[in-house]
Amino acid sequence: MLKINHELKPEDLKSKLDRFWGVSGKKIIDLEKNYDTAQGSPVYTAKGKYTTRGWTEWTQGFQFGSSLLHFDATGEKDFLETGRAQTLDIMAPHLTHTGVHDHGFNNVSTYGNLLRLMLEGKTAYNEWEKNFYELALKVSGSVQSNRWTNTADGGGYMYTFNGPHSLFVDTIRTCRVLALAHAMGHVFLGEHDQKIDLLARMIKHMNATARYSVFYGKGRDSFDEWGRTAHECIFNVNDGNFRCPNAQQGYSGYTTWTRGLSWAMCGFPEELEFLETLNEEELKDYGGKEALEERYLKAARATCDFFINNTPVDGIPYWDTGAPNLHKLGDYLNKPADPYNDFEPVDSTAAAIGAQGLLRLGRYLTNKGDNEAGTKYFQAGLTVVNRLLEDTYLSTEENHQGLLLHSIYHHPNGWDHIPEGNKIPYGESSMWGDYHIREAALYIQRLITGEPYYTFFNCLNR
């Protein structure tokens, strides 16, 4: 169980953050100079060098978005120019990619960050450039929302690359691109000029994720536990009925893949923050603001509680809480995670993504007047990030292109590199892990410096 450091303050991480950004810049420059873009998008490292994996193109936005986050944190303009140029030159196909559920990853990390930096005053204001970024996000939100399956309960979800039957818990964090497109006043048109409500689709998808992907200990199945998540939910597309939980990258549909858990931990709190910007009138047709906030807060608290209760004391989870060989590690929850063990790999990226959710949930609850719970979650997030910034997880070797060590992509498929003479993968990095540790670090740094609170919707004119 995560041992929360209740004494830690954001300011206590300042020296670690200073070192972190120094390492971050070197990694970005190395990748830009030495990665062969003809291979495709960099996905994860093998023997410390970034390589690709042709499954879906979901990581390129994290590569270029990392340069933008680094500029945000350091003010080093070369990283801004690199991130901006690569977004303009390379990211356009991601705007109209109809085959993936990853628009909120790729395009909010690039076009969204560029627009946010401009509206926050960190880059020069240019009306044409602003309009261009807004148009990109409107297109992206519409394309993502068009991957739609109706459910028998009157709701629906944005389906995954597996097909119309498939709801991934991951997609909760890509809902933000629909939030932006809606808030920008975009009208998405379908057959016969039918107006498709982007806010409605976002809310219905979140409702489906909260109902089917998250468990609440109510006996849905024999493995129902407060806050457990299913990576994938399977539906009968003929009648829209839910059939069963499943897993693509986890051990099974009845265990919890921790990176999937972390997407829910992060996605629900940041969408709760977005809903705070909407009034009751805007949400009355979708069940009302209070009911929606209650539903998503329940999902956020449940998943964050599950993480705290099922993660080792230092805040770094193993790749799946039901992984078959965890028992061979002994009392693994009551000692620090061991990325070099012989039985099951840790996944530092689940920690980096989940930490941001803990921080946001903590702040949200504190602002609502629940100081005890808010402090608990916020301090849990700080504890996790503090650990990730230490030498075990921060890649300081110059010949290693990654930033966050001990990332796992797809353990069941055996995609992750296993060092010679070892039994499990360790010591590698990924684009999503490197991006999200930068994002968590930026979140905390802006709290320290007193800059505007960091949200994805800072790119809106309000």
Give the tags.
462 residues; mainly alpha; Glycosyltransferase; 3-stranded antiparallel sheet; two-stranded antiparallel ribbon; 6% strand; globular
Question: How is this structure best described in words?
Answer:
This protein is mainly alpha-helical and about 450 residues long. The protein has a single domain (about 10-20, about 45-55, about 145-460), classed as Glycosyltransferase. It is built from 15 helices and nine strands. The chain has helices spanning about 15-35, 60-75, 75-90, 90-95, 105, 110-120, 125-145, 175-185, 200-215, 260-275, 280-285, 290-310, 350-365, 370-390, 430-450; strands at about 45, 50, 150, 155-160, 165-170, 190, 195, 230-235, 240-245. Helix 1 crosses helix 2 and helix 10 runs parallel beside helix 13 (about 350-365). The longest helix is centred in the first third of the chain and has 21 residues, at about 15-35. It is globular and about 60 Å long.
